[in-house]
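Bit of a strange request maybe. I'm writing a small parser for structure token strings and I need a real example to test against, not something I typed by hand. Could someone generate the tokens for this chain?
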Amino acid sequence: MKTNFLKLSLLALVIFTASCSSDDKDNTIPAVVSQKVTDLAAPQTGGQGTAVGGAFTKFSFSENKIVTTDNWDIAFRGTTIIVNGGAKYNTSDADEPSRTGSGAVSIVSGTFGSVTLFPASTTFAQDASTVYAIPTGSGNGWYSYNSSTNIISPIAGKVFVVKTHDGKYAKFEVLSYYQGAPATPDATSVPRYYTFNFAYQANSTTTF
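Reply from user aminoacidic:
Good idea to test on real output. This should exercise your parser:
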């Protein structure tokens, strides 16, 4: 009888310990890890006074890859970056994808590492028929354009906090617009290749 009782006690202890270990694992919130995307191609047709066209390159933060489904968060074509929320900017542009998600963007000044808190909800904007959430044009959005050298440079201190298509959050900063991310782009550099850092928050917290 004593032997059976001892065996049952040991079994109960093992089950309790395993249960506690399982609970500890379930309650652990994974750390947010910064990742780097290199040479994401964003080709376009037209430009320089002619109508711009071509498919947007759609990117998912949660999957960390280019996607072709509606589960995209941001998309790139030339210097234009769009978000999967709101409405199409140009309804006559068949190449511009429809917005099927609840995405939005808040533009924050600071270094990538210093942006650790989600901005106020009132600072987020979606694409619309009159304006992109990330403005286009030199000095207005993510880049500046040097008309003397024809070089496009990311504006330092611009961090974009994105509400993703499904209501999660990510942040990103553009590092380069040229293939291979040259430190000093010149006339030989190949444009329309984005290199950027991003961090994706998959949990129900308000920090990165």
